[in-house]
Structure formats: structure tokens, C-alpha cells
Amino acid sequence: MTCKEGENIPEARFKGFNDDWRKEKLSSMIKIQGCYAFKSSEFKKSGIPIIRISNISNTDNNMNINMKEIIYYNEIENEKSFIIKKSDLLIALSGAPGKSSIYNLEEKAYLNQRVGLFKIIDTKKINNSFLSQYVFSSIFQNKLKPFITRGVQPNISPKDIENLDILLPSLKEQEKICGYLSLLDEEIDNLKKQKELIKEMKIGAMQKLLPGEVRLSKNAFNENI
């Protein structure tokens, strides 16, 4: 949903919601939690997962953390300031600033340097689902662009993110919006699974129907193909 210029209401509304959306700074409701500079020489093959920028991937509508090529670390005392829990929303601060993912595993993980974690500090203003949908939106991504610095690699600071303005509806309207968008996300996931099944069916059909190094016997075909 987008808001018309000069108005604090979106172009589309659910029935029963008529109030203007209010403009506030993200800093009034969230903070970007910092990370820990782990020593690469101490990485392990097992232990506590470390979430790096390379693990953050929201491509192809996939909001979840990419757990491929994950690295591990021994458990650390006083880990509270850089621990990641299920449903936490993460954002890349370097490389591809703004790229975001949701951590959806039951086990805890650690936050590597230049990865930020959204911490909601006022649950009366925004809920986690609405924040996630907003961060994944083109509206948020476009707001970040003017603040990205271009050096050896692109960067954005947590303060610049926290200082962004956001238009907010009531918590009830946030829940309504998120419920609808979640249904669409589920439909996208189902279609992606169907696509993979059809691709596998095609590969199987090609192996049977096209000539190759191994010729199929006449009995390999039947009316049920």
C-alpha cells in the first residue's frame, strides 16, 4: 500500500479503518542492535551459528535466512548484546545495504559484524510482522538509498536507518494488513513448491522421451506415462 502525496492514508484500505496514518521516526519504536567482531581464526564446524551478510538473502521473495555455508563459534559469555532468536529481523549494513532476512530457526545464533538486528522498543506503536513487511517493501528500500555511502563497499549506518520516517496505522490495522500479506506469502511459497515439482516432472519426462547414452527398452513405456 502506498500513500498519496500530501495525505496520510494509503490508496487502499480495509473496511472499518478510516483514521489517518501517523508519521513518526523509526527511532521512536525500534533500534538497530549492534554485532560482534568474531575472529575468523576461531570459526568452528559446529557450535553456535554465526549469521553473516552472506547469509542474508531476500531474493526470489524468500524472506528467510540462507543457512548455506554457515559457520559456527563456541558459546560466549555475556552474549546478550549480539544473540539472535527465532523471528528476529536482520539487515545488512554493508555490501548490499538494506538486504534483509528473518531468522526462523529454533536454535539461537550470533550476530556478525555489519549485520544489524531490529529491536522493537515500543510494542504499542508497531508489531514485528508489520515491521518486517515494511522493511521488505520497496518504500523502505527507496528511503535507504540516499543514505548509502559509496566507498570500497557500500555502507549504511544504524543511525540513518533509525532516523527514517514511517507512516503508521493503528495496531489493529497493522494486524489486518499483515494477515492479508501473510496469505499472499503462503500462496507464493505454494506456487514455488509446485514449480519445483513440475521441473522435476519435466526432467523425468526428458530422461524417458529424449535419446541419450542409455536407450530405454520398449517395456519402459506404458500408457500411464
From TrEMBL:
Keywords attached to this entry: DNA-binding, Restriction system
GO BP term, pick one: DNA restriction-modification system
Annotated GO MF terms: DNA binding
UniProt domain Type I restriction modification DNA specificity: residue ranges: 18-199
Statement: the UniProt record of this protein carries the keyword DNA-binding: yes
Coiled-coil blocks: none
Record keyword S-adenosyl-L-methionine present: no
Family assignment from sequence similarity: Belongs to the type-I restriction system S methylase family.
Record protein name field: Type I restriction modification DNA specificity domain-containing protein
Taxonomic source organism: Brachyspira aalborgi
